[in-house]
Design a protein that fits this description.
Radius of gyration: 20 Å
Strand order of the largest sheet: 3-4-2-1-5-6-7-8
Largest sheet: 8 strands, mixed
Number of domains: 2
Number of helices: 13
Number of strands: 14
CATH topology of the largest domain: Rossmann fold
Shape: globular
Structural class: alpha/beta
CATH architecture of the largest domain: 3-Layer(aba) Sandwich
Oligomer: single chain
Helix content: 25-40%
């Protein structure tokens, strides 16, 4: 059985809030060695950190609590065009640890897939409807996913809705899970402060027009936004649309820096309701981490209907698709104690340790 593997992540190691972070931590707990290769800084970093960018162009690896984390740099993000993808793959190959590169490798981004060539066991873990997220490159991304269909030893998806991207292949459906740190203490009743919480990445996926209409129709409610910004063309900064939204509802909407899932408990416990106002075309096929976070603390998530947990049903979800329906939910919203107990019980069956048992069986070589 393999005792090590490599992760080509779509994220940085910190903040550790995504699927690949949770699965990596579970691997370390199970005495497996992991090289976690971060998403790269691109040439925009030269202006602020030129020496760091130059150093990271070949990859810099350090031990972080038992995980070999590789920081790296590229010129242009690989999703931009074919040339950028080829260059990023070349640089990514250099960052692979010689000690681990021949072992199983898990890739998360379709345009990075060629970098996995040469690994003893190639796995693609599909978390998003990538062609829809990069509509300007949809044909190229679909072609990359077809190549994965032909070459991958295993294909894992977070929702069966993503299986269509891999025609002719058996896919392994393993949804996201619950961070057990959020289960360490009993849930507490909603404080009744009429606070909504959005926990996650802020990007074009969010329907700020819907949120604006809901807040206008529900003046007693306020909103907290917690998470990193990832808007195209803005790097890690808020987009113009988000800044206008914050200005329009100044005093009722607060933007907070990203936090770890364990630290997110403070925000979840002090809200009455979590939300996921995601455009349908961006949500289909996803396994919403927000749903699992909410359930762990006995909360529900008010979502547009395409936002699912990747499981058959979840008592943590309430669905509505337009501003009027959202406002109607808020007008009479109440979470009973029995509902909170049911939600928490569901969460306890959805932990990352449970997910890892299935996931690792397709990753390591026996």
């Amino acid at each position: 059985m393999s005792t090590s593997f490599t992760v080509l992540s779509k994220s940085r190691w910190l903040p550790s809030i995504r699927r690949e972070h949770a699965l990596t931590r579970e691997a370390i707990r199970n005495n497996l060695a992991v090289q976690f290769i971060e998403a790269p800084n691109d040439v925009r970093a030269v202006r602020h950190h030129p020496l760091q960018w130059a150093t990271e162009i070949r990859g810099v690896t350090e031990d972080r609590d038992g995980v070999l984390v590789t920081r790296r740099a590229t010129v242009v993000p690989g999703h931009k065009n074919d040339l950028a993808a080829r260059l990023d793959v070349t640089l990514l190959r250099r960052a692979l640890s010689p000690r681990l590169s021949a072992n199983p490798l898990v890739s998360y981004l379709p345009w990075q897939w060629p970098a996995s060539s040469g690994s003893s066991h190639r796995v693609f873990d599909c978390t998003d409807p990538w062609p829809h997220l990069f509509a300007h490159r949809e044909r190229a991304v679909r072609d990359q996913m077809l190549r994965i269909s032909q070459e991958a030893d295993e294909i894992i998806v977070v929702s069966n809705d993503l299986a269509d991207y891999f025609p002719g292949r058996v896919v392994r459906v393993i949804p996201n899970g619950v961070d057990e740190a959020l289960l360490a203490t009993p849930p507490i009743a909603p404080p009744g402060n009429l606070v909504m919480l959005y926990l996650g990445t802020l990007s074009e996926r969010l329907d700020f027009e819907l949120l604006g209409r809901v807040l206008s129709a529900s003046p007693q409610w306020s909103l907290e936004l917690v998470g990193p910004c990832s808007f195209r063309g803005f790097g890690s900064e808020p987009s113009t649309e988000l800044l206008e939204f914050l200005g329009r509802f100044s005093g009722r909407v607060a933007l907070h820096d990203p936090v770890s899932r364990a630290a997110a408990q403070v925000y979840i416990d002090r809200c009455d309701l979590m939300i996921a106002p995601t455009f349908r075309e961006y949500a289909v096929g996803q396994s919403s981490m927000k749903t699992f976070d909410a359930a762990a603390r006995g909360r529900q998530v008010l979502s547009t209907s395409a936002v699912t947990a990747g499981t058959s049903t979840s008592p943590a979800q309430v669905f509505a698709d337009d501003a009027e329906s959202w406002s109607n939910v808020l007008r009479t919203y109440e979470l009973t104690n029995s509902a909170m107990i049911e939600i928490r019980s569901w969460a306890e069956q959805q932990t990352w340790s449970v997910r890892f048992e299935d996931w690792i069986s397709y990753v390591v070589l026996k």
